[in-house]
Amino acid sequence: MSDATGSAATTTAAASPGRPVPSRVWRGAATGVVVLAGVAVVLAGGSSIAAFVPFSGGAVLVATIWALRRPGGWGPTALLVVQLLAATVPWGVPDSALDWALAAAAATAVLATHLSLALLAAWPVRADLPRATLARWVGQGAALTLVGVVAALGGALATRTPVSWGPVVGTLALVALSALAWTVSLTARRR
């Protein structure tokens, strides 16, 4: 082993502490997230109109297979569009806390699909995933989930308050989301 190879290996090991996650493990987890997110979207959309589930389920299944076979192609875009349609077509305007929770769950599932497919497209098939990359990926997913929860709480609060309070609730929701985005950006800079 030459000195250049040895120093490069030492630099890589120092940059990402811990053993990398094997390809089959992280790819299986990312694939599982995409599949479970699709199920969540179909169930969230189907809770409004149950007869819509076979149509949306079939469309999400076909688009999921396409997206997972070629995560770097047009399949992921098609899957995201199909998931958005499956989640929004059967719904009206959310008017209860449950409606807002389902909308937030569907939106979070679509974002989780995007994150997972982006990871699958960005890393080579047989490449192990560094722990630092996994930590960033999980952190971004958690931040997006938190944004969904805050948005659902803001929507549910706006639904339950008198009309005159609408601008106040909207302003508070925007302030909360801005504070969350600022906190996430500070955390990302520290890494």
Order of helices and strands: HHHHHHH
Q: Which percent bin holds the helix content?
A: over 70%
What characteristic shape results from the CA principal axes?
A: flat
Structural class: mainly alpha
Give the number of helices: 7
Number of strands: 0
Low-confidence blocks of residues: 1-16
Binned strand content: under 5%
Major sheet, described briefly? none
C-alpha end-to-end distance: 32 Å
What would the average pLDDT be, to the nearest integer?
81
Rg over C-alpha atoms, rounded to the nearest angstrom: 20 Å
Walk me through what this model shows.
This protein is mainly α. α2 packs parallel to α4 (75-88), α4 (75-88) packs antiparallel against α5 and α5 (97-122) runs antiparallel to α6. It has 7 helices and no strands. The two termini are 32 Å apart.
Secondary-structure map with pairings?
Blueprint: H1 3-15, H2 23-46, H3 53-69, H4 75-88, H5 97-122, H6 131-160, H7 166-190
Helix pairs in contact: 2-3, 2-4, 2-5, 3-4, 4-5, 5-6, 6-7
In short:
The chain is mainly alpha-helical and 191 residues long.
Relevant terms:
mainly alpha, disordered N terminus, 191 residues, single chain
